[in-house]
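Thread: Newbie trying to understand structure tokens

Hi all, I'm a second-year student working on a class project, and my supervisor (Dr. K.) asked me to get a predicted structure for one chain before our next meeting. I've only ever worked with sequences, so writing a 3D structure as a token string is new to me. If someone could post the tokens and maybe explain what I'm looking at, I'd be very grateful. Here's the chain:
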Amino acid sequence: MNPTERNILTTTCFGHFLSHFNMLVFPAVVLPLSALLNKPLSEVLSISFWMYLLFGITALPWGLAADRLGAKALMGIYYAGAGLCGLAAAAWIDTPGALTVALAGIGFFSGIYHPAGLGLISKHISRISYAMGINGMFGNLGLASAPLMAGIVTWIWGPRAAYLVLGTCNLIGLVLMVVLPLPAEMQQASKTQDGGGEKGFLVLLVAMMLGGIAYRGATVILPAYFELRNQGIFQWLTQHLPSGLSANLVATTITSAIFLVGMLGQYMGGRVAERFSLPHSYLIFHLITIPMAFMMAWTTNLPLVFLALIYFFFLLGMQPIENTLVSRLTPSRWRHSAFGMKFVLTFGMGALAVKGVEAIEKSHGITWVYPALGCVSTLLVFTIGVLIVRMGSRRRRSVDLELADSR
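---
Reply by user tm_fold:
Sure, no problem. This is what the structure looks like when written as tokens:
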């Protein structure tokens, strides 16, 4: 990579780290918050609904803004807005209504990253799939470090301190933009558009929406799921480690370890996207998650952790493949908007998974959450099959037209 590409990737990697870090602090503190606010788990989960919804539905307007104003200004707004809202969440941690507003602000400003940052990568870095894989690894690092940080900080100082850390980390992003400034104008050649066209992108949007539901549902409940179903691990650790260890800390640490392993999945996904068919690779990664999701309902302790490792390795590892597909199926001039459309569906519609998880937990128990997500992934795989057929027929028509022209 040239120096400009390295600056872009460094800045976008930090932004990706924080965007997921911002979203994953809440699941790690949901049970301590339940105790602090004296409310049941289902009611505390609902406090995060607007955060996850705004994180997704603002992606398209932020993408349109990035296409018009450039990504540089948007990234500055992202860091400042999310940082100040994080500090507000810390101040209002014991007031449910105000906390809901502060969390909504975190989601609103964090929604800037994906259309702005991924648009930068897809438009201005030559090895798109490789850069998407590296960028995805830092997103996974955010997924991994958020529950670990929140678990340790909450264990020592309580959930208020977790949001003080969150706000401070986002404000550091403004410093990074001064040290590694993005160019004000970046006029580079557009990347070529692959087979599939607009209709292929519409099918991909449906697939990404279903993937967003699976992703959000799986991540929002994972620390609590481990805390409730890994009691054997917790009891063994309390017998062999110093006293004072909490079940929440154990669960969040395991969650962090799984997301760290998911970083390898992101890297593998980026390498696979460079070497093999994008739609077929996309299909295989999602297909592997289905049996893992169903089996996670009937296992506990170490078997559950092992299945979760496989599940999240492929659920997260498919993201560089998916992002490269977006780049191949859309023109450069509205690439930020295309990623905005993606994340409106993946994170905006994915926010409905929070309500779905809440309803399933209340009516059937937490055990049924992952089988429900397995059903969503099954529908997703069928949608990818339609995409493969669509892209294949488009390529065949293109070849036929080229042959006709040559005659």
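A couple of things are worth pointing out once you decode it. Residues 202 and 319 are 17 Å apart (CA to CA). The chain has 18 helices and no strands. Feel free to ask follow-ups in this thread.
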